[in-house]
Specification:
The complex is a heterodimer.
Chain A lengths: L2 E4 L4 E4 L4 E3 L1 E4 L5 E7 L5 E7 L5 E4 L2 E4 L9 E3 L8 E8 L9 E2 L3 E6 L1
Parallel strand pairs in A: 2-12
Antiparallel strand pairs in A: 1-4, 3-9, 5-6, 5-10, 7-8, 8-9, 10-11, 10-12
Chain B lengths: L4 E3 L2 E4 L5 E6 L6 E7 L6 E7 L2 E5 L6 E5 L5 E5 L8 E8 L10 E2 L3 E5 L1
The chains are: A mainly beta, B mainly beta.
Chain lengths: 114, 115
């Protein structure tokens, strides 16, 4: 079936460290891929997306590249800040029988220490 | 412009009761989706409505139902509440059915606690 797997958290880093949060997926067809972020006490916000293979989504210093050959969409940031502390969700949509829904990973909690 | 709004923010119910959650989409958005997010997990899809018709349904029992009104707002109803229904219920709106890219905008959620 269609699914998304994320690295388990929490991930704890110091400010200005390099961030990678791994995301791999299993899907029939050609999904679109998303990263959403959930700050403490807030709703989900779209961080970035990619709709086809080799596309790179980017926003607020975060990047992720749609890798069809490895079925991955890893989230990266070169220098994290305390304000990046949140839960990050990888998701996909647009696959057979799931065309209108988002299929989510379990989320990765990121903690940035000053 | 206002984002997606949901009401109430928090709700406490007892087992066996019924609950209605409400959602108003972003102005101009015709599609509303509902998700359940249990603490520590990713959201699970419950329903999608587009132009007042159900367009998708997740793996939830018939105790869960929803509808969309002519102004595109939506209600999620849950009957015969169980302890396991305690969760954050999220509403998301999008411009269309969103085949493929399906960019959705989320409300802050309704925190339901069943005791």
């Amino acid at each position: 079936g269609n699914s998304v797997t994320q690295m388990e958290g929490p991930v704890t880093l110091s400010e200005e460290a390099f961030l990678t949060i791994n995301c791999t997926y299993t899907a029939t067809g050609y999904p679109s891929l998303f990263w959403y972020v959930q700050y403490p006490g807030e709703g989900l916000q779209l961080l970035l997306k990619a709709t086809k293979a080799d596309d790179k989504g980017s926003n607020k210093g975060f990047e992720a590249t749609y890798r069809k050959e490895t079925t991955s969409f890893h989230l990266e940031k070169g220098s994290v800040q305390v304000s990046d502390s949140a839960v990050y969700f990888c998701a996909l949509s647009g696959v057979f029988r799931s065309n209108y829904q988002l299929i989510w990973g379990a989320g990765t909690k990121l903690i940035i220490k000053p | 412009d206002a984002g997606v709004t949901q009401s109430p923010t928090h709700l406490i119910k007892t087992r066996g009761q019924h609950v209605t959650l409400r959602c108003s989409p972003i102005s101009g958005h015709k599609s509303v989706s509902w998700y359940q997010q249990v603490l520590g997990q990713g959201p699970q899809f419950i329903f999608q409505y587009y132009e007042k018709e159900e367009r998708g349904r997740g793996n939830f029992p018939d105790r869960f139902s929803a509808r969309q009104f002519p102004n595109y707002s939506s209600e999620l109803n849950v009957n015969a509440l169980l302890l396991g229904d305690s969760a954050l219920y999220l509403c998301a709106s999008s411009l269309s059915r969103g085949q493929g890219s399906n960019e959705q905008y989320f409300g802050p959620g309704t925190r339901l606690t069943v005791t």
